[in-house]
Amino acid sequence: MRVLVIEDDATVADYIVKGLKESGYNVDYAADGKVGLVKATTENYDVAIVDRMLPHVDGLTIIQTLRASNNTTPVLILSALGDVDDRVKGLKAGGDDYLVKPFAFAELLARIEAVLRRQESTATQTRLKVGDLEMDLLAHKVTRAGEVFNLQPREYKLLEYLMRHAGQVVTRTMLLENVWDYHFDPQTNVIDVHISRLRQKIDKGFDKQLLTTVRGAGYMLDDPE
Prior knowledge:
The chain has eight helices and eleven strands. The protein is of the alpha/beta class. The strands form three sheets. A five-stranded parallel sheet has the order 2-1-3-4-5, with helices on both faces. A four-stranded antiparallel sheet has the order 6-7-8-9, with helices on one face. Helix 2 packs parallel to helix 3 (about 60-70) and helix 6 crosses helix 8 (about 190-200).
């Protein structure tokens, strides 16, 4: 996890940077708002810790600039200004959380972890991966070890469902409801036919077989290693 700390108080900054590094984070540091803004807009970070009152460019301006450019990096604001109006201004500027100085490092760490969890839960997943099998949801492209597969729409939907449930047994009922939109069993071999076709495409010619039949239960897509 990469963290950007923008803080002009050297003592506070050293306290934060040292603690985050000891907690396993990769930390970059900027001592003023101008340098911090450049780092925040030109590099990728998982979270930014921004002091509100900074020389050259203040913290709220940094956050507003990021949000105006569609940069969604989570920002935790640090400030000695603890009134309700001050916190509201910080959050309305685009901050994700607001911590008043002085603070305990344990609380700072807990707030960072909470912000990251929220970010992960709202992030749109654009790529699925099981072993060397990959699905690019934006490009609608499936590859395995660099080989591109031409899948029919139903095969693609079937594989996507299996990849989203990798390592789990997927039953026929689950596939009928979620891939075929059937809420009854049509008593046909439609699933078996599509599973067979899909297996021929993604497993044939490879040493490891990813798609397996679990007798009496359903199917499973998983990396055997």
